[in-house]
Amino acid sequence: MSSLEQAIKVTVGVTAAVALGTAYVLVHERRRKAKAVRKAAEAAAGGSGGGDSSQSTVLSATRLIDLLAESAKAAYQLIEQTRKMVHEKHVATGMALETCVDELQKDFESAMEAVMGSIRAKHGVTEQVMSMAMMQHQSVPEVAAAVTALREAMGGKAPPGYAAASAAAEAEAAKQRVRRKNKTGRKG
Residue 30 sits in which domain range? Predict the structure, then answer.
């Protein structure tokens, strides 16, 4: 039995080493990406030297509106997904809805942070850059509307155009299901 115990110890040791190595790589990669984003934001903000004052606008109003609209859509999708999870947990366990909401709240907040961070990273901007751009373009009515749509989406209201886009996506998915069914149902 000592060889079995020794094999278990070796397996645990190897697993621990792999876990530590993975954690190191993930942390290092995250720092590297954060550094690259920070440098890009500094360069865009004119921190690298003699740019003129027109370079201080990090995000154009159009790009900011697109980013806010994407954020609103993603936030609303996450809220809808969480609502479904709360309902399913309520039905499965019989717990009160408020209890189910409370239990899923922390996961929801983490997921929302991750979604928003992912969108900012995708567009190569930081939260500070977005805040600066929102302040710079606050007088643009479309930017104000996009900010309002994001706030409302985070509150559970569908962003503008969401229902139409969702209906179109559902219609296309239904067509695909019919096509697959027709292909598998053919004799011939």
Answer: 1-48
